[in-house]
Amino acid sequence: MAFTIALVQFKPERKDIKKNIQKIQSLLDGVSADLIVLPELSNSGYLYPSSEALLAYSEPSNSEGNFLTALKEIAAKTKGVIVSGFSEIDHNKLYNSAVAISADGVLANYRKTHLYADEKSLFLPGDSGFHTFTWKNVTIGMMICFDWIFPESARSLALAGAQIIAHPANLVLPYCQDAMVTRSIENKVFTITANRIGAEKLGEQKLTFTGQSQITGPKGEILYRGPKNKSTVHVMSINPEKASDKSMKPKNDLFMDRRPEFYEI
């Protein structure tokens, strides 16, 4: 079964939703893919002094805001579903979220479970939990950036049937790309980590993002790793059914051999 995925790496501009839309439109001009994954907070950029300062660059998850409306239109042209990070507002509450959106509208919305560092001053912890959605008979899950360091994130999605995990990110730590090899192996899933590039500065604080967006296969094979600091779109075809087979050896199955009654929580 052929399923086309596209990974998008770019630098979201802080406080400039219009420019970010233009960048995404330009990068995806002429691209056709079943699934496209964009970085975390692609609408707003990352560093803000307060949640109040971020409100103007946030929107609800109902696809009526400027950013998600634009993604819906892009999805119609690419003939697929787009997963993108964005700053979500819900009754004046902010969430670091990821949306799955097609030409017909929003299919799923995920709110980041594990907030990183100063994100805790901007966003509320996500309350959506880890769930999957189906697109063209493929089961897809979403997690965001720092969720990677908690094995339960990817495992929850894999147990829910995810064949592909879409992973928008704004990574600053140097470990994630290598760790996603393990996340893919231990769950036998495809993972798509769409990271941003560039740097942001706020007062004395400066963050440099690591780029190197990555597509990883169910056996931990790095199918693609992007450059450190260059906007990139990478399109490739995969067979999601390879993530449905959880057998390891003739007598071993990754999930059937689990013994959760002995796992302390």
Task: Supply the key terms.
about 260 residues; alpha/beta; six-stranded mixed sheet; 5 helices; 16 strands
Descriptive account of the structure:
This protein is of the alpha/beta class. It contains five helices and 16 strands. The strands form four sheets. Strands 5-4-3-2-1-14 form a six-stranded mixed beta sheet. Strands 6-7-8-9-12-13 form a six-stranded mixed beta sheet, covered by helices on one side. It has a two-stranded antiparallel ribbon with strand order 10-11. Helix 1 runs parallel beside helix 3 (66-78) and helix 4 packs parallel to helix 5. The radius of gyration is 17 Å and the shape is globular. The model has no long low-confidence stretch (mean pLDDT 97).
Strand order of the largest sheet: 5-4-3-2-1-14
Total helix count?
5
Give, in order, the helices and strands: EHEHHEEEEEHEHEEEEEEEE
The helical percent reads 10-25%
Rg from Cα: 17 Å
Number of strands: 16
Mean pLDDT: 97
Low confidence ranges? none
Distance between the termini: 38 Å
Q: Give the overall shape, derived from the CA principal axes.
A: globular
The proportion of strand residues reads 25-35%
Please identify the structural class as seen in this structure.
alpha/beta
What summary fits the major beta sheet? 6 strands, mixed
